[in-house]
Amino acid sequence: MSDRVVLAFSGGLDTSVAIGWIKEATGAEVIALAVDVGQGGEDMDVIRERALACGAVEAEVADVRDEFADDYCLPALKADALYMDRYPLVSALSRPIIVKHLVAAAHKHNASVVAHGCTGKGNDQVRFEVGIRALSPDLSCIAPVRDLALTRDKAIEFAEREGLPIDVTKKSPYSIDQNVWGRAVETGFLEDIWNGPSEELYTYTQNPATPREPDEVTITFDKGVPVAIDGEKVSMLQAIEVLNERAGGQGVGRIDTVEDRLVGIKSREIYESPGAMALIAAHSELLHVTTERELLRYFRGVSQRWGELVYDGLWFSPLRKVLSTVVDEVNEAASGEIRMVMHAGKATVTGRRSEASLYDYGLATYDSGDTFDQSLAHGFIELWGLPSRMAHARDNRING
Ligand code: ARG
To answer: What are phi and psi of 384, to 5 degrees?
Structure first.
């Protein structure tokens, strides 16, 4: 075992205790790294101080919010990525960027081990460790909860015994992970999949059932990148933040689902991703307008596969990278504006405008000005139906 370990530090009970726990179990010094991916909540300086107070020899904070938005959330938006058609990959997207910064910290501090707070039952352990070992095969990984028997009871006992500056009574019955792209809530009474989520689970979204005025928004895209909201220029991070507020204020982006984890377990998940879901709704509609039919059909498969790879911890895989180049190519034409009404938990597209539109009014109209030659349809239908006609006639001939 190395004498230096870099720990992915969240400031919660498990990772706070992990600092002393790792030291006791292995004799190694622990360097804590807190990565700010827009999770909000406690001040990052407070979290840093806590790591030192818990015995870390060094504690660092990496503010990677813009990098996360630009290099992880944006590719997911361009791919309209939804795992199992629902989940916008909130946690799955944050792991690779945390990995990147953990590996950099390990090199900087001459550590040969990276530690994280995951259990042995989830996806995140896989995402961390596959990522770390892909970027730096010389590093090894340790998860105190999984590998060093750091149970919840022991963590509370340890924190009390050592007088760690963490309120053990504040530990939530849920496992929560959040960042600017959204929020995931698991465990507790949600493990009975018949139990409906209670309102206090939600923090990014208001109750969709509360009566309120609808909110109309226009999003401008440039090659798939949201560059303005209601005409105001925004960075990717700002686009997500503004829509988290506005779509969240309308209860948009609540998801209650049972999903297939990579480790084979089905799990109950509550997500809230107002900004992400509003952006994906707008972006995918723009692609409907600007993408040629066959390419759009193909893109759906690419989108699904992209989401599965990222979910399954394969962000750093060659296939994910190749699929991202296809996604970028499709987005070359995705420039224009989408107007949406957000209300009562839904973001509904009501208008689209694009220089790169493939929608042709003359071809589509049933009014005067029709440029479509309807006389061509007859022959087209004859030939299109030929194979089915032949097969049907054959079946009738043979089977009677
Ligand atoms: N099930 C989701 C995923 O695998 C969310 C995981 C959230 N992580 C957590 N520690 N609560 O991406």
So the answer is: -60, -40
Dihedral of CA atoms 319, 324, 326, 330 in degrees, nearest 10, equals 160
Ligand 1 near 36 CB (within 6 A): no
pLDDT digits (tens, 9 = 90+) for 186-226: 999 999 999 999 999 999 999 999 999 999 999 999 999 99
Q: Residue 325: is it exposed, middle or buried by C-beta count within 10 angstroms (0-12/13-18/19+)?
A: exposed
Ligand 1 centroid to 273 CA: how many Å? 13
- CATH 3.90.1260.10 in the chain, residues? 176-353
Catalytic residue among 14, 80, 177, 312: 14
- Does 43 participate in catalysis according to the annotation? no
Residue 184 CB less than 6 A away from ligand 1: yes
What are 20's two structure tokens?
Answer: 């002393």
Give this prediction's pTM: 0.97
Could you identify the atom of ligand 1 that is nearest to the CA of residue 269?
1
Joined tokens for residue 257 = 């689902």
- The verdict on whether 367 is a catalytic residue reads no
The matching CATH number, chosen from 3.30.1050.10, 3.40.1380.10, 3.90.1260.10, 3.40.50.300, for 176-353 is 3.90.1260.10
| Stretch(es) of the chain classified as CATH 3.40.50.620 | 4-173
Rounded distance, CA 28 to CA 37, Å?
A: 27
pLDDT greater than 80 at residue 170: no
Note the Cα 287 to chain centre separation in Å. 20
Right CATH for 4-173 from 3.40.50.620, 3.40.630.30, 3.40.630.20, 1.10.1740.10 = 3.40.50.620
Active site residue 153: no
Beta carbon of 92 within 6 Å of any ligand 1 atom: yes
Q: Is there a catalytic annotation at residue 14?
A: yes
- Please pick, among 112, 140, 175, 235, the residue that the annotation labels catalytic: 175
- Kindly give the distance from the C-alpha atom of residue 91 to the centroid of ligand 1, in angstroms, as a whole number: 5
* Apex 79 CA angle, 73 and 83, nearest 5: 80
pLDDT value at position 201? Answer: 97
Strands of 174-253, DSSP E: 175-179, 182-186, 215-222, 225-229, 232-233
